[in-house]
């Protein structure tokens, strides 16, 4: 059980994060696997955040654990419901009490659907300290965020939408068989995921009141948006970040006009 409001990470975890992959590296999916992700519909009017659309058991969970891909309902913005993909891992060993959860918020991985974290292989690089967390008896949950993994526009760097999807993944985990959560969780996130972690911390009491957040770790969080944007707009090597971020912001704010930010060459 979480006994304090601080989660400690060792040097090994920080080294893992330092070498975290940001490039999309995927293997060719089988037709059966690809069909799982082919979800074009929107949730029914009576759907609730965390409701499960479908699940698929993973075959690469760490030894002594089980893992699932999940597609679930999230209220990504007020009144806007969408299906979001994610993943859940739980120890095989039975527990005589509800398990605490750890919420991982992922970094930039690339915008195409096949770059979604849950569509790639799992290890301690992609989800830092995964095996250690499972060995300690915790449930580990991660969201791909809206539009990544499933058809539809990506809400890249839209903190509120990504944080809602992340918190709703916690709700979805409670619907999986043979999983009983304590309602207590900690969260950690890297880069874009650090921004997601910050937003989730700010809204958890209102948006996910059934859960008790015990602590957060923001690792190299992308939260100084003015400085990040100003730097990216003047460094050719970061052009992809700037354009991707504008695309994500326009998804959440259709009234945004690209010409207000970009010269004609950028358009």
Description of the structure:
Strand 4, helix 3 (130-135) and strand 5 form a beta-alpha-beta unit. The chain has helices spanning 11-18, 31-37, 130-135, 159-173, 192-207, 225-232, 239-252, and strands spanning 52-57, 65-77, 80-91, 99-105, 139-143, 181-190, 212-219. By secondary structure, it is α/β, with parallel strands linked by helices. The protein is globular, with a radius of gyration of 18 Å.
Helix count equals 7
Question: Unreliable stretches, pLDDT < 50, 5 or more residues?
Answer: 3-22
Major sheet: order of its strands? 1-2-3-5-4-6-7
Mean pLDDT: 88
Structural class given helices, strands, pairing? alpha/beta
C-alpha geometry: globular
* Element-by-element helix/strand order: HHEEEEHEHEHEHH
Total count of strands: 7
Kindly provide the radius of gyration, computed on alpha-carbon positions and rounded to a whole number of angstroms. Answer: 18 Å
Q: Please describe the biggest sheet, giving its number of strands, its sense, and whether it closes into a barrel.
A: 7 strands, mixed
Instruction: Calculate the terminal CA-CA distance, rounded to whole Å.
Output: 52 Å
Give the % helix. 25-40%
Q: What fraction of the residues are assigned to beta strands by DSSP?
A: 15-25%
List keywords for this structure.
23% strand, 7-stranded mixed sheet, alpha/beta, 28% helix, 267 residues, globular, 7 helices
């Amino acid at each position: 059980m979480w006994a304090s409001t601080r989660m400690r990470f060792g040097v090994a975890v920080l080294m893992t994060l330092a070498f975290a992959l940001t490039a999309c590296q995927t293997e060719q999916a089988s037709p059966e696997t690809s069909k799982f992700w082919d979800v074009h519909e929107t949730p029914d009017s009576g759907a609730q955040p965390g409701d499960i659309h479908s699940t698929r058991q993973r075959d690469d969970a760490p030894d002594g654990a089980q893992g699932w891909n999940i597609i679930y309902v999230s209220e990504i913005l007020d009144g806007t419901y969408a299906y979001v993909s994610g993943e859940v891992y739980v120890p095989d060993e039975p527990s005589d009490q509800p398990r605490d959860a750890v919420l991982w918020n992922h970094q930039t991985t690339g915008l195409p659907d096949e770059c979604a974290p849950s569509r790639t292989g799992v290890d301690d690089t992609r989800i830092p300290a995964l095996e250690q967390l499972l060995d300690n008896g915790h449930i580990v949950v991660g969201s791909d965020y809206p539009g990544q993994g499933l058809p539809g526009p990506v809400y890249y760097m839209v903190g509120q939408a990504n944080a809602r999807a992340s918190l709703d993944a916690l709700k979805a985990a409670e619907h999986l068989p043979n999983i009983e959560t304590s309602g207590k969780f900690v969260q950690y996130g890297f880069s874009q995921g650090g921004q997601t972690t910050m937003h989730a911390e700010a809204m958890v009491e209102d948006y996910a009141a059934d859960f008790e957040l015990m602590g957060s770790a923001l690792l190299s969080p992308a939260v100084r948006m003015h400085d990040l944007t100003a730097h990216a707009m003047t460094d050719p090597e970061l052009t992809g970040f700037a354009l991707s971020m504008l695309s994500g912001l326009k998804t959440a704010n259709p009234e945004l006009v690209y010409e207000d930010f970009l010269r004609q060459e950028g358009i």
